[in-house]
Here is the input.
Amino acid sequence: MQTDLSGKVIGIGVEIKFDDHTGYGQILKAIPGSSAEKAGLRTDDQILSVDGRKFKGQRLIDLVNTIRGEVGKKVELRVLREDKILTVSLRREVIPWTPVEFEKIDESTALLRIGFFNELTPKLVEDSLKKVNSSGIKKLVVDVRNNDGGGFRQVVKVTELFLPEKLVIAS
Here is the structure.
């Protein structure tokens, strides 16, 4: 997916991890409502090639940049699912994806996942913290695993939500 700090995401709508050894991209998740989900791509499908290009000896960014492109343009993936190779044609689109997910685990615990830091992230985290404070939740798990990174200013703004006032953050 292509993303900028404004939160605009262009791609097919998958979260992937990359195996440097094989050059395959493993689908971790198809984003709800995306062209990937509509085409039936699933968790653990292996992306073997994109528009005929293979990625052995390359990096995740090479795979991602090949999947990215103009909104409305088609991209063809060869995908390994269990023991079958599938060819899937998808159209690139703006992906309905949020950088922050909040869910209540039980009466006293909530989970806050931060997938990347863009201009929307600080406000979404602040809104989630308001839910925590108003609902009697005592424990909050903040998950930044598989975070795609983002803007330094947005990271600082989110960090400030968790730290006491007047604490200086130096980098």
In short: The first helix runs from residue 35 to 38.
